[in-house]
């Protein structure tokens, strides 16, 4: 009964009741006058029709519009709106529907943004990403995966993993993930044309709320650079061990010989001289290793200052001239006296000493070694040229590697550590400079170093 007295129905019911009572009273007064009775009935019909039309316009028609707006929202059109102020109830309904539409629109926009962000992150990952469902079908491959293994997305999505993954290691990882229901990691080689890359794949199972496996996600890393660095580390350790073992073995051997047996004075002096040379070589090796370590240390800072290049070279030239003279080489220099530079003077001294010393070591007696310095507007050009044994083109790229020697016997006989050019390269790089090598077998080598003036 409460509904009859609601704001929406009570005025209409009251109006109809009044019309019926009034028309009933008039019909009693008519006393059989059919014309008057018909007129009263028509009047009742007209009044009741007006009441119902008003009710229709005020409630029924707005409800139809509200229903249409809700249907638009169900179809995903959250920009649809409903406005009606015919009654307090319809006005409140329109506000609620429009508020719901705005909230749904905001949620949809946020979801789209999150989806776009997630897609952008997945596609811009350098690593490969694959999503596989519990039946083995591929649902997602990102751009990183396609770059690693080639092909396009259509070749993978919607296909069984063992039909589209060519590498057996990938099959094995997926199978173990589903079998053991725990993360699995494995490394494998991936051939791309003539190149061979090392990959690491980590697969992890995906579970639903009932702890049932629903699929697996695979992340593939290109670890080629890590493998290269690991090989360099192993080679470096092996080379250091070998380079340290050789002088230590000589020192120990001759020391034991001196200790255990009787020798004439001349033989003892020879042994002591060998021990001295090997210990000096060991000292040079350790100093070069420490210098390389300092240059490669993160945060290494050059101690730059303004200085005259000729004065810097004159300070190191006497010892180099003495070594060249002992080997019967002609060491010539061509340096302008007014060239200045803002750089680390001690480090550039090392560059000059190592380059000229290297040229002397690899140039036969009677040959020439030339040190030239020139400048342009922005850089100072240091050039060391020799008429030595030269190198093949394929060797040039390796001479800056640690412990690499073009002629191993010659380098060891001259006391070289195999680290001189590696140190030169690092010093030039920390100065933001450039180093260029020209060489021809049996004709000689020219090494050009360009250092910015400031």
TrEMBL record:
InterPro entries: BphY/WalK/GraS-like, HAMP_dom, HATPase_C_sf, HATPase_dom, His_kinase_dom, HisK_dim/P_dom, HisK_dim/P_sf, PAS. One of its GO terms (cellular component) is plasma membrane. Residues 239-454 form the Histidine kinase domain. Residues 182-235 form the PAC domain. One of its GO terms (molecular function) is ATP binding. This is histidine kinase. It is found in: Cell membrane. The keyword Cell membrane applies. The keyword DNA damage does not apply. Keywords: ATP-binding, Cell membrane, Coiled coil, Kinase, Membrane, Nucleotide-binding, Phosphoprotein, Transferase, Transmembrane, Transmembrane helix, Two-component regulatory system. Residues 83-110 form a coiled coil. CDD domains: HAMP, HATPase, HisKA, PAS. PROSITE patterns: HAMP, HIS_KIN, PAC. The chain crosses the membrane at residues 9-28, 34-56.
């Amino acid at each position: 009964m409460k509904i009859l007295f609601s704001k929406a129905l009570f005025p209409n019911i009251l109006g109809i009741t009044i019309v019926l009572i009034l028309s009933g009273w008039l019909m009693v007064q008519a006393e059989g006058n059919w014309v008057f009775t018909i007129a009263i009935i028509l009047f009742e019909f007209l009044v009741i029709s007006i009441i119902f039309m008003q009710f229709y316009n005020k409630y029924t028609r707005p409800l139809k519009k509200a229903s249409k707006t809700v249907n638009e929202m169900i179809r995903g059109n959250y920009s649809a709106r409903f406005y009606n102020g015919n009654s307090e109830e319809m006005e409140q309904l329109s506000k609620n529907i429009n508020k719901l539409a705005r909230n749904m629109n905001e949620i949809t926009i946020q979801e789209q943004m999150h989806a776009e962000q997630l897609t952008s992150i997945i596609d811009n990952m350098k690593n490969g990403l694959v999503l596989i469902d519990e039946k083995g079908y591929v649902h997602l491959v990102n751009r990183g995966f396609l770059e690693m293994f080639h092909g396009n997305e259509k070749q993978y999505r919607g296909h069984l993993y063992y039909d589209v993954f060519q590498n057996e290691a990938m099959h094995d990882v997926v199978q173990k993930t589903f079998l053991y229901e725990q993360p699995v990691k494995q490394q494998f080689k991936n051939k791309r044309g003539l190149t061979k890359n090392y990959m690491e794949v980590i697969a992890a199972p995906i579970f639903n709320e009932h702890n049932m496996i629903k699929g697996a996600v695979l992340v593939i890393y290109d670890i080629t650079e890590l493998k290269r660095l690991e090989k360099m580390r192993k080679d470096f350790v092996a080379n250091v061990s070998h380079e340290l073992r050789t002088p230590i073995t000589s020192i120990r051997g001759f020391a034991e010989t001196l200790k255990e047996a009787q020798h004439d004075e001349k033989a003892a002096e020879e042994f002591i001289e060998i021990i001295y040379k090997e210990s000096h070589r060991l000292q040079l090796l350790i100093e070069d290793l420490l210098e390389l370590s300092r240059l490669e240390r993160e945060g290494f800072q050059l101690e730059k200052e303004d200085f005259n290049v000729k004065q810097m070279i004159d300070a190191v030239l006497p010892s180099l001239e003495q070594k060249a003279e002992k080997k019967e080489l002609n060491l010539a220099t061509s340096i302008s006296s007014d060239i200045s530079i803002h750089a680390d003077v001690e480090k550039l001294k090392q560059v000059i000493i190592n380059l000229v010393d290297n040229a002397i070591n690899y140039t036969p007696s009677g040959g020439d070694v030339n040190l030239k310095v020139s400048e342009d507007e922005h850089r100072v050009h240091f050039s060391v040229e020799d008429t030595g044994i030269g190198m093949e083109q394929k060797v040039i790229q390796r001479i800056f590697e640690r412990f690499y020697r073009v002629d191993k016997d010659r380098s060891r006989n001259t006391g070289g550590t195999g680290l001189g050019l590696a140190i030169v390269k690092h010093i030039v790089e920390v100065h933001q400079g450039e180093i260029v090598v020209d060489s021809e077998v049996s004709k000689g080598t020219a090494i050009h170093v360009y250092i910015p003036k400031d």
